[in-house]
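User: What would this chain look like folded?
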Amino acid sequence: MSITLPKITALASRFDEVRARTVALAAPLSAEDQCVQSMPDASPVKWHLAHTSWFFEAVVLVPHMAGYRPFNERFFYLFNSYYEALGPRHARPQRGLLTRPSLDEVHAYRAHVDAAMRRFIESAQGAAWAAAAPLVELGLNHEQQHQELILTDMLHALWCNPLLPAYDPALAPALRLAQALPARHWVAVPGGTVAVGHGGDGFAFDNETPRHAVLLQPFEIADRLVTCGDYLQFIADGGYERAALWLSDGWAAVQAQGWQAPAYWLAPGDARAPAAHWQVFGLNGVRPLMDSEPVSQLSFYEAAAYAEWAGARLPTEFEWEAAAALPAMTQMTGYVWQWTRSSYDPYPGFRPMTGAVAEYNGKFMVSQVVLRGGSCATPAGHTRPTYRNFFPPGARWQFSGLRLARDAS
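Assistant: Here's the prediction, encoded as structure tokens.
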């Protein structure tokens, strides 16, 4: 494979933009903020800053750049996430104990990796570049995933603070949910054999491939997302008190964790709520809950229970992908990730990437549920209709919501 200079130049520019965006996301946070880990499933912002640098160092620079000297050999242990092929690692639940290296040293680490990556990209050519270029592109998309995690993980940490401090009180509008939604309509989809998965040019993760045919039965899908106002009706109708609406594991979670509303909602009378009506905590702090906003911070269990209460169901991921191409559909991305009724399984003929990055997706294809779309915290341009996000069914710290589907009437 050959690559022209303009393409290398464009990739170098994109590298700088993505790396700068990560630092900008951390800018509103203090050093203390960036060291905290509020639960095992989340990571400190400082760790995200270091890990995304570790990825370029361990996956691109060490194997492909002659003469590269690592910033600190011990960082290979500290900031490896889950790559068995790249050696042992610090335990995930203990990332919040890493008060050292300091935040300043982590930024120095990023600067060291950035400078080496720029030299590598600018001098890249021939077979060496052909082997490394896909890994650079993967690293950029990997970093964008961590940009979203910086926001969602930090939001959970701030939620755990009794003061409920805002990540950024003057949050840019692009990270806010919509202020108004149209009335919901059902869109009829005739079904039949459709092609799903990524099969064209441009980047895609390996779990989006290969493109293949699936048979869909006729169905209907809501043209918009379920709103907070919609979900309040579910709560008012005793949705969290009616076992018949819930999957068994979901009902067990309701009982064990005392769920009564989506995560980050403050009910009237809540000791932390500053007013006597429903509030919601978000990246820009506590604000009144808006009926027209898409409901967010739902687990799969809550999404499935709401769909059952509404006399509907969640779409499969393939129904969602087929519907995404229809002009009548709205809010397919940019608001909340949308739970589907599909387990995270390999596509027929799936083959993971080669080398260490073979561990990127495939080994997680068990006990997870697929979400489609993209959220208000997802970097612009990062998603596509074939993108498969995935989380355990009880996860509710992401910007995750739902749209309804039903069998054709």
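The chain has a mean pLDDT of 94. If you want, I can go into more detail on any region.
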